[in-house]
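Weekly structure sync, notes
Attendees: PL (lead), two postdocs, one rotation student
Agenda item 3: pending single-chain targets
PL asked that the sequence for the first pending target be pasted directly into the notes so everyone works from the same version. It is reproduced below exactly as submitted, 236 residues in total.
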Amino acid sequence: MPVKDSDLQPVTDLKMVQRYLKYGLEFHEILSCVLEEGGLRFEAQLCSIDEPTLTLELEINEESFAKFDSNSLGSIDQAQGGVRFSYSVNEATFYVHGKIQRRHSRRVALRADMPMYKLQRRDSLRIKVLESHRASVKLGSSTLPLFDISAGGISVVVPIAQEKIYRQQQAFPGSVLHFVDKEFKVDLEVKNVLSHSKEGLRVKVGFRFKALPAAIEQLIAREAYLQTHKIWSRWL
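Predicted structure, written out during the meeting:
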């Protein structure tokens, strides 16, 4: 299923928010952060929590900090719109909005806002393929646009006349996948074939990856992160 608004659950109970933040602290999770104004992105680690006030202290990681110039640091110091960050624990991802209070070198203090949002999925997060992704797959002699993609697989939509071409568990080794200006060779297997229109004129063919290069898994994760943040930010 593609990521959608209903996948994001607002957490409004203060004790639960405190508990979920402590998960990030105790498990030393990496926080993916973005400033609302200017879109500056960086990674950080949660160092401490003042639970009654939800005041957090973050430490920007060395790699992110080394890339900052004076304008980047000024953006953090003068952040008016606040910062959004997310982190994952097991099968759940948590999204938090906060206002920066102060910065000293790599250390940043911010006050988290209520509510936080929780995304919990048991399967791979499937994202809607956009025109900007320039995504397609070559299956044999046919090149088809992607309908959606996840770390688990892809799907395409074809006319019902082509349904017999794709049988369950049929293998397509050495297929060529294009995604965000990158090209990868992947081995695919047909997972299912489902009706995709009320008129019954088109079907959606789902494929699972037999082996997925780490580079494309990182690209998919990045795009899923960006899409989820866009949905979440509409609620703030």
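Discussion points:
- The chain is about 20% helix and 45% strand.
- The CA atoms of residues 147 and 156 lie 5 Å apart.
Action: rotation student to compare against the earlier draft before next sync.
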